Each structure stands twice: as C-alpha cells, then as structure tokens.
C-alpha cells in the first residue's frame, strides 16, 4: 500500500510540474476577448493542460494496475512456494514413515528367522540326543546279548567237558 501511495504522490507531483511548465499564466484581459487569435491560443493551452492532466491520470491508473498486478503475481509466487514446501514436507514425512516401516519389517523378519533357526537347532539337538540314546540302548542290548551268548557258550562248554 505504501508503494502505491508513494508512487501516486510522485505521479501527481510530476503531473503538476508538467502542467506548470507547459501552461502559461492565464492573463484574462479584454484584449484576449477581443483578439480571436489570443482566445484560440488560450483555448489550445487549456486543451493541452487538460490533455496532460488526463494523460497523467491514465499513466497513474496504468501504474496502479501494473503495481497491483505485480503484487498479485508476487503473492501467487509466494503461495506456490508455500504449497511446494508443504508438498515437499509431506513427501518427506511419507518417505520417512515408509523407511521406518521397512526397518520394522526387516527387524521382524530377522527376529522370525532367528526364532526359526533356534527351533531348528532345538529339533536337531533333540534328534541327535535321541539318536545317541538309541545307540546307547542298542549297545547295551548288544552287550547284554553278547554276555548272554557268552554265558550260554560257557555253559555249553562246561556241559560238554562234564560229560
């Protein structure tokens, strides 16, 4: 607003200076009324002054319209920059949320994989322990059978020597 006021004041002062420099002091005298040439000159001078005032007013109006247009363009640019900044901010938020979700997904998968590995290790250890128990039981059975055979063999030998 102060830009327009300052511009308007400058324009009016320039107009007055222009009018003052082109206008001749109006000397109303009986001679002008009697001299058609002087009356014509005075009329032309008044027409020039009036035209200069109209031109100055048009220039001022054009300047006001131009300044208003430029101010509107500046507001539009500022609004667009604000919208663009907000869109950038929203994109950054969405991207950060997406990356955080991906990180949570990776951590959850690592936890699942670790649990699956732990379960496989437990199953494998239990299987190996069962196999070891089975081998020990078979070895004990084999030893018992060997002992029984040895006793039977010894009894058979004793019976044959005792005859």
Q: How would you describe this structure in keywords?
A:
163 residues, mainly alpha
Provide an overview of this structure.
It is built from three helices and no strands. The chain is rod-shaped. Residues 17-25 have low confidence and may be disordered. It has helices at residues 2-22, 30-34, 36-161. It has one domain (2-161). Helix 1 (2-22) runs antiparallel to helix 3 (36-161). The relative contact order is 0.05. The longest helix has 126 residues, at 36-161. It starts with a helix and ends with a helix. It is mainly α and 163 residues long. Helices cover 93% and strands 0% of the residues.
Short description:
This protein is mainly alpha-helical and 163 residues long.
SSE order and pairing:
Blueprint: H1 2-22, H2 30-34, H3 36-161
Helix pairs in contact: 1-3
Query: What count of domains describes the coordinates?
Result: 1
Distance between the termini: 142 Å
Instruction: Give Rg in angstroms.
Output: 57 Å
Oligomer: single chain
Largest sheet: none
Structure class = mainly alpha
Which band does the percent of strand residues land in? under 5%
Count of runs of 4 or more consecutive helical residues: 3
Q: Fraction of residues in helices?
A: over 70%
- Average pLDDT reading: 86
Q: What pattern of helices and strands is seen along the backbone? A: HHH
Low-confidence regions: 17-25
What's the total count of β strands? Answer: 0
């Amino acid at each position: 607003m102060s830009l327009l006021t300052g511009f308007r004041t400058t324009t009016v002062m320039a107009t007055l200076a222009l009018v003052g420099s082109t206008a001749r002091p109006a000397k109303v005298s009986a001679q002008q009324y009697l001299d058609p040439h002087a009356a014509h000159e005075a009329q032309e001078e008044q027409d020039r002054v009036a035209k200069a005032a109209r031109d100055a007013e048009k220039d001022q109006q054009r300047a006001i319209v131009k300044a208003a247009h430029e101010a509107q363009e500046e507001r539009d640019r500022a609004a667009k920059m604000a919208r663009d900044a907000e869109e950038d901010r929203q994109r950054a938020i969405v991207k950060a949320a997406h990356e955080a979700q991906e990180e949570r997904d990776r951590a959850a998968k690592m936890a699942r994989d670790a649990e699956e590995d732990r379960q496989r290790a437990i199953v494998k250890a239990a299987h190996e322990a069962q196999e070891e128990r089975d081998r020990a039981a078979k070895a004990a059975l084999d030893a018992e059978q060997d002992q029984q055979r040895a006793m039977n063999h010894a009894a058979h030998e004793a019976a044959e020597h005792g005859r």
